[in-house]
């Protein structure tokens, strides 16, 4: 795994990083400065937006639901393009979500695999938006940059051929960043609760993520996600030709 500091330093963000610099199965690393992940960008300051611009970001892909985005109050600069895609799809698949929302498992990696298996088109839509974005870097995010963002990162990095241990390590960075992120909005840590939910199902947060990653079938996903050959090439190369 890479020891490179991939933190994306931007005022207002506590869980932002470059997905470049990660080791590939066949050697080399993912390109830096092309694809980024973070939490919600609504609290990014003007200086923070300038830092994002300096890092190369030109498109933001927002994975949140309409009821979340309508609460945004921040002002975004005119040089950034925002693409909103409701990754959850609560309205489109209420039957799927009932068990996860009622039990709280929606806040754990235990739902990642089932979501990818039953609603692959939701992730496919996000990846298509990343692949087809205008020239420049792309940053994708949800609310905390953990679950919806974690699913997209799991799939994107798998498509790019990143070593599995590096994919796990990237996910765990979010766990490490969670206390500072929650403290910034005055919310106590909920990590113990999330771990307890996973323990009820005989695993841990890390273990649940590892299981979702191990069970992810790239070929099966590609068949069902609505991605064409150009999309896949762009994702595998981290948009090398346009970013």
Question: What can you tell me about this protein's structure?
Answer:
It is a single chain. The chain is α/β, with parallel strands linked by helices. The chain has one domain (17-236): Protein tyrosine phosphatase superfamily (Protein-Tyrosine Phosphatase, Chain A). The chain contains 11 helices and 5 strands, in the order ββαβαβαααβαααααα. Strands 1-2-5-3-4 form a 5-stranded mixed β-sheet. It is globular and about 45 Å long. The mean pLDDT is 95.
List keywords for this structure.
five-stranded mixed beta sheet, single chain, 243 residues, 5 strands, alpha/beta, Protein-Tyrosine Phosphatase, Chain A, 9% strand, 11 helices
The CATH class assignment is: Alpha Beta
Q: Compute the CA-based radius of gyration.
A: 17 Å
Instruction: Give the low-pLDDT segments.
Output: none
CATH architectural category: Alpha-Beta Complex
Terminal CA distance:
24 Å
Mean pLDDT across all amino acids: 95
Supply the number of structural domains: 1
């Amino acid at each position: 795994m890479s020891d490179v500091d991939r933190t994306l330093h931007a005022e207002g963000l506590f869980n932002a990083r470059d997905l470049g610099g990660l080791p590939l199965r066949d050697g080399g690393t993912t390109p830096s400065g092309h694809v980024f992940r973070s939490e919600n960008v609504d609290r990014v300051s003007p200086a923070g937006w300038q830092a994002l611009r300096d890092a190369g970001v030109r498109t933001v892909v927002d994975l949140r639901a309409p009821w979340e985005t309508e609460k945004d109050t921040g002002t975004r600069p005119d040089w950034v393009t925002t693409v909103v895609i409701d990754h959850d799809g609560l309205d489109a698949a209420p039957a799927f979500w009932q068990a996860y929302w009622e039990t709280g498992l929606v806040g754990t990696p235990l739902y990642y695999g089932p979501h990818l298996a039953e609603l692959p088109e939701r992730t496919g839509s996000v990846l298509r938006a990343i692949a087809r974005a205008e020239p420049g870097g792309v940053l994708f995010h949800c609310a905390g940059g953990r679950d919806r963002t974690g699913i997209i990162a799991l799939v994107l990095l798998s498509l790019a051929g990143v070593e599995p241990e590096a994919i796990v390590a990237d996910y765990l960075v979010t766990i490490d960043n969670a206390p500072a992120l929650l403290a910034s909005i005055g919310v106590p840590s909920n990590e113990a609760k999330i771990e307890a939910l996973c323990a009820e199902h005989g695993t841990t947060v890390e273990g649940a993520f590892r299981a979702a990653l191990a069970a992810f079938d790239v070929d099966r996903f590609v068949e069902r996600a609505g991605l064409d050959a150009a999309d896949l090439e762009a994702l595998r190369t981290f948009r090398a030709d346009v970013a």
